[in-house]
Amino acid sequence: MTLPSNTQLAVSNEFLNDIPALRKRLQEEGYLFFKGILDVHELTGIRTDMLVLASEYGYVKSGVPLEDGIYSGKPFPTSGKFETSPLYRRILDLPRFNAFGGNAVLSLLLSGLLDSEIQEHRRRIGRITFPGSLKNTTPPHQDYFYIKGTPDTYTCWIPAGDCPEELGGLAVMPGTNHLGMLVHEPMQGTGGHGVTHERCKQLGKPWLTADFKAGDLLLFHGHTLHKALDNRTEDRLRVSLEYRFQRKTDVIDPGSMQIHMNGAFEQ
Ligand SMILES: O=C(O)CCC(=O)C(=O)O
Fold first, then answer.
1. Which of 23, 105, 194, 256 could form a disulfide with 141 if both were Cys (CB 3.0 to 4.6 A apart)?
2. pLDDT tens for each residue of 46-82
3. Is residue 83 lining ligand 1, measured as CB closer than 6 Å?
4. What was the pLDDT predicted at 262?
5. Where do the domains of the chain lie?
6. pLDDT means per 10 residues in the chain (267 residues)?
7. Shortest-distance Cα residue to atom 10 of ligand 1
8. Quick check: CB of 46 below 6 Å from ligand 1?
9. What's the CATH architecture for 6-248?
10. How far apart are CA 8 and CA 165, in angstroms?
11. Which atom of ligand 1 sits closest to the CA of residue 190?
12. What is the Å distance from ligand 1's center to 63 Cα?
């Protein structure tokens, strides 16, 4: 059967009052997707904080509303890697961005799913993805490759603003949480390693994604294969957040207790 290259994530809102059903789906599919369960007002605040900083560095077009996140076209000055930039370093210190890691919806959901006291990782990520920087698109990977500690770590990927497919959301491959660790090879894109596109095709499963809206939450297991989609817009910045959770009693990698890219920033 030929599957379309991207099909839609299954929405799990109908099970929000049924934790056993959510656990079952998460165990089977490796992900859960919820529409509109996070506070858009709080997310808009974080988006604004990030765009204010980006605009200080000249990356946001002036003369149009900041919250539209329109790229100025100013090229990245250094290696082109957002994650080692001074701008990113400053994003990681933003109070509202960090406080969202303790968000009540996330905490209640994750502690219910894991049936445990939870530990949120300090290694939070607030990402801005530039239009046209396709060589930086995050390639297919499993988070355990980078996060280590326990594979039972769950990533919450959250668009800070509407993120239609052309702005480059996130796609997951369902059921890949059952495959254990796949071979990761050096690859172009954020992170620098991934599972080759050829290998992904061989797995014979579809990539699932959505036209994300602010307030949506995509949550997945450390073994679930996922990738970013290209930001194919002409001039729009994609703003997204990542928070990670695990059981308090599970092994944790020391890097998860530090800020992302600790010490690896360019001046
Ligand atoms: O948003 C991205 O580009 C990558 C996100 C990702 O890989 C993750 O949340 O684990």
1. 194
2. 999 999 999 999 999 999 999 999 999 998 765 668 8
3. no
4. 77
5. 6-248
6. 69 97 98 98 98 97 97 80 89 98 98 98 96 90 98 98 96 98 95 96 97 98 98 96 98 94 69
7. 143
8. no
9. Sandwich (2.60)
10. 11
11. 3
12. 30
**DSSP conformational letter for 60:** B
Instruction: Copy the structure tokens of residue 240.
Output: 């997204």
CA of 104 to the centre of ligand 1 (A): 22
- Residue 220 near ligand 1, beta carbon < 6 Å: no
Please give the number of the atom of ligand 1 that sits closest to the Cα of 137.
Answer: 3
